[in-house]
């Protein structure tokens, strides 16, 4: 697994993020774990910097449920002392 800066992640970090979804292929699972590791790296950096806020936004309507799930997970994990991660909602969409 590679982090945001293109460097190999430590085995312990990779192990914490190692999971598989049966509905995905091996390659898709690798991409999911890699993406989640990158998100964690960015969130960790934002928390330690104490000056960075992350705003999650998605443009493609078919991806909004997944983006919202990831954003809510990020908020639960990283918004402990301060609001580091915020989500947006597409208010113009109809249910």
Briefly characterize the structure.
The chain has 95 residues and is mostly helical. 47% of the residues lie in helices and 6% in strands.
Structure description:
This protein has helices at 11-16, 26-49, 64-78, and strands spanning 54-56, 85-87. Mean pLDDT is 81; it is low at 1-7. It is flat, with a radius of gyration of 15 Å. 47% of the residues lie in helices and 6% in strands. By secondary structure, the chain is mainly α.
Strand content: 5-15%
What percent of the residues sit in helical stretches (DSSP H or I)? 40-55%
| Total of helices | 3
Largest sheet: 2 strands, parallel
Query: What's the helix-strand series?
Result: HHEHE
Number of extended strands: 2
Query: What's the arrangement of strands in the largest beta sheet?
Result: 1-2
**Uncertain segments of ≥5 residues (pLDDT<50)?**
1-7
Cα radius of gyration in angstroms: 15 Å
Give the overall form: flat
Topology:
Blueprint: H1 11-16, H2 26-49, E1 54-56, H3 64-78, E2 85-87
Parallel strand pairs: 1-2
Keywords:
95 residues; two-stranded parallel ribbon; mainly alpha; 2 strands; 6% strand; single chain; 3 helices
